[in-house]
Every structure is written in C-alpha cells, then in structure tokens.
Amino acid sequence: MAYIALDKLREALYTAPVLALLDFKKVFVLETNACTNRLGVVLSQEGRPLAFFSLALGVKHLGLSIYKKEYMAILIVVKH
Fold this sequence. Notes:
Elements: H1 2-14, E1 29-34, E2 38-45, E3 48-56, H2 66-79
C-alpha cells in the first residue's frame, strides 16, 4: 500500500500540469488562496488549469483579514 502512495507522489512531482486552452463557451472557475503573506489564484475550466497567479503581499496588506485578502486576490487577478 505504501508503495502505491509513493509511486503516485513521485508521478505528481515529475509530471508538470499542462495548461489547457480557454474556451469562452465554457464556465470559468477562479480559485483563490490567501495566507499571511501571499496570494495565489488558479483559473480553470472543467477541472483543467488555464493560468496560475501568485503574489507576495507588502507590509501594508499583511494585517488584512483572510476574507479581504481573498477579495483582493480576485480584484488583482481580474485586473491582471
């Protein structure tokens, strides 16, 4: 059992995710992640990633709540 998990982990580490081409006829999904000092966003369609975005937060934004950081991630990535 441990060998199966190790093989799956090894495969995940050695295979890079391939970005899909966007299709304006399909629904876009925007997933955000905010932590203490970084923001991360993945744009996907049907479970396949289209684009990744990551940003380090400056001192001015470190004290914001997680909700505000998530909202800020959405605003920044839409502008980008």
